[in-house]
Amino acid sequence: MEIRGALVLRKRQVLILFVLLGLSQARPESVPYSVAEETEIGSLVANLARDLGLGVEELSSREARVVCDDNEKHLHLDLLTGDLLINDKLDREEMCGSTEPCVMHFQMVLENPLQFFQAELHIKDINDHSPTFLDNEIVIKISESTAIGTTFLMESAQDLDVGSNSLQNYTVSPNSHFYIKIQDSDDGKIYPELVLHRALDHEEEPELRLTLVALDGGNPPRSGTTLVLIKVLDINDNAPEFPQRLYEVQVPENAPVGSWIITVSAKDLDAGNYGKILYTFFHASEDIRKTFEINPISAEVHLRSQLDFEVVQSYTINIQATDGGGLSEECTLLVKVIDTNDNPPEVIISSITKIIPENAAETLVALFSVRDQDSGENGRIICSIQEDLPFFLKPTFKNFFTLVSDKALDREERAEYNITISVTDMGTPRLKTEHNITVLVSDVNDNAPAFTQTSYTLWVRENNSPALHIGSVSATDSDAGANAQVTYSLLPPPDPLLPLASLVSINPDNGHLFALTSLDHEALRAFEFRVGATDRGSPALSSQALVRVLVADANDNAPFVLYPLQNASAPCTELVPRAAEPGYLVTKVVAVDGDAGQNAWLSYQLLKATEPGLFGVWAHNGEVRTARLLLSERDAPKQRLVVLVKDNGEPPLSASVTLHVLLVDGFSQPYLPPPEAEAAAAAPADPLTVYLVVALASVSSLFLFSVLVFVAVRLCRRGGAGSAGRCPVPEGHFPGHLVDVSGTGTLSQSYQYEVCLMGGPGTNEFKFLKPIIPDLPVQDSGRHIGENENFRNSFGLNLQ
Length: 800
Hints:
This protein is mainly β. It is about 10% helix and about 40% strand. It contains nine helices and 50 strands.
C-alpha cells in the first residue's frame, strides 16, 4: 500500500509539472478550447463569434474561415451561427501520439480587412485502447541458484492512451515462486519486474508458465496479457558486461536502408554455453523494431527502414545482452537523426480571386501560406514572384502571404497575367516549388470610341436616287464586350436652317451614310454635319467626327441667253452701217449656264445666216462681228442670224438665239474699230498729239455722255413696242441661279444686267449698265478652275 501511495503521489507531481509547462508555453493571444477525441462529427466545440466579440453578419461579410496548421479540415465554422463544429472524428493517438497535452493549433481568418485570430484545441484522451504486449510469449531463463529476492526485467506492455487512461499496473497469475514489482522509469513509464519469492529447483520444476496482466487506469479499466515462460537453468555466476552504458550515434535521414549504424558488444567471463551471448532489443517499441534491427550474434545494428527527421528526430534503444546461463546486462543506444533537405517547400492556397476589374488598385488576388517540414536552414523559406508584373507579395501573419495588385490595371494594355509564386528554401541543395496563378482583368468602360478620321469628305453627284449609299464612317472602341459595341447617330447641325434629317441618314450599327433625297448642286453645293459614336457601356462614352458632303455637278442645266431676250414683246434689231469695216462689232450674245466647272464652259457658233460669210461669231465671248465690207448691192438690208450657245458637258446641252440685223446708211460713228485697229491705235504717239487728243476726247465724251443719258431716259420711259432702234429692258430677275465661268463670256450668278441699244443719231455701241442686284459672295468649295489669260483674251471667229 505504501508503494502504491508513493506511485500515485509521483504521478500527480508529474501531471502537475506537465500542466505548468503547458501553461508557460501558451500564447496569451490564443483562445483555448477542448474536446474529447472520437467526438461525433457536427458536435459543438464553442461559439467563436461570441468568444471573439464578432457579429454573425460580420462572419459572412468578411468571409470568415478556419485554417488548421496541418491544413486538414478538422473543424468547420458555421457562418450563420458562429458555432465551431467538429468536421471529422479526431483521433488523439493518430494526431499527437504519446505527446501530452495534445493541442491542435488553428486560426480564424477574416478578410476586408485581413485579420487573424489564433486559437488552440486541446484533444482530451478517452480510454479507447487496451494495453498490448508486443510478444505473445516472454521466455526467461533463471538459474536454480538464483537468490531469493532477485528481480528479472519483464517486457512492458504498450498503451496508446495517455494520462489516467494509460498503463497503470501489472499483475501476475498466482504462483508460489514469483510476484510482480512495479518500477518507474525516468520517462514516466512503469515497467514490470519479476521478483523471486521462493528458490527454484531445476530437478523439481524445470519450467514455469505464468500469465502477465497489464492494466490501464480507465473506467472501466482495460487489460492485456502475455505468457511468461520461465526456464530453470543450472548455475551461471557471471553475467555479460558492456564496456559503456550509453552509446550515441548520428545518422542522416537519407541513409539507405541496410546501412550499418553501430556495433555494441559485451563480455562474459563464463565458459562454454554460459559464455555465449545473445543480443536483443529490450523495451523496444514497434516503431523501433520496424526501423532498426540487431544481429543477435555480432551485435551489429542496421537500418531496417527509411528515417524521416520530420517524423522522429531521435531514437532511444535499449539493448540487452544475455549469456547462455540466463544472466543479462543492458545498455542504451541513442540514435540522433540528422536533417537533410529532402522536403520541398509547400504552397497552400487559402483563397484566390481569378478575375479582377481593371480600375481597382491594390486588389487582393490570393491568400496563401508556405511551409517546409525541414528544420534549420533547410526549413528557411524565401517567397517571390516575377519582377515585371504589377503585383507584390505582402507578409501578413506567421507564414501567411497575400498577393496584391500594385496599381490599377489596364485591360487594353494586358488582359491576362500568369503569376508564378516561387518558394525556395535555404538548404543544400536548394529546393524550389512553384505555383502558377492566372489572373484575368475584367473590362471597365474607360475608353471612348475613336473614329478612324477626325473628318470625312464625301462626294455625291447631284440628281442622285433617294436612299443612295454615299459613304461610311467608322469608329473603334478598345474596350471589350458591350463596352466595345458602337452605335452611330447624327448630331444636331450647328446651322438650324439645315434640314439634316431630310438630307441624310446613318445606319446606327455600321455607320453607313445614305442620301434621303435627290440633291441639287445648284441649290446646295456642300453641307457638313457631325456624327456621334456611342458605346454601350455604363456610363456610355462617345466621340464625334465631322462629315463634309460635297455635291458634284452634273450637266443638267442648258445655257440660258441673257441678251438678246427671246421672249420680249418686240424683236431686237441691230443696226449696222454699210460702211462698216470687217471686224465691226454688231452685237454680243450674253448667256449663262447654271452648272459648274466644264459643264458651264460655253462656246458660240453661227448656226444659220441670211448671207453666209457676211457675219461671224467669236466662239469664246459671243461677239458678232462683220466678216467683210458691206458695199455689195447684193447684200439684203435685213439679215437674220441664228447663234447656237453650247456648254462643255457630257452630253452637251445647247440653246439658240435669233438676231435681226438691219444694214443702214448715215451713222455718225460708222463703225467700231476692230481689235487690230485698236491695237494699232495703242502704239506710241507724239506727246503734243496725245495732249490734244486727250483734251478733245474729254470734251467730246462729256458732251456725248450728257446726250446719251438724256436719250436713254426718254427711251426707257416709253412702254410697249418702240421704234426699230430701241431694245426692251428686262424687268425683274432672271430665272434660276447663274454660274460664272471666267473667260467664257458668261455672267456671275449674282449679276443681272440692263442692256440697251442707243438709236437715232447716236452711237451703235452696247451700253452695259449697272447690275440690278448686288454682288453677293457665293461659297464654292467643290470647284477650283484656273483662268488662262491667253485663252481668255484669244477669240475664234465662227463663220457660216
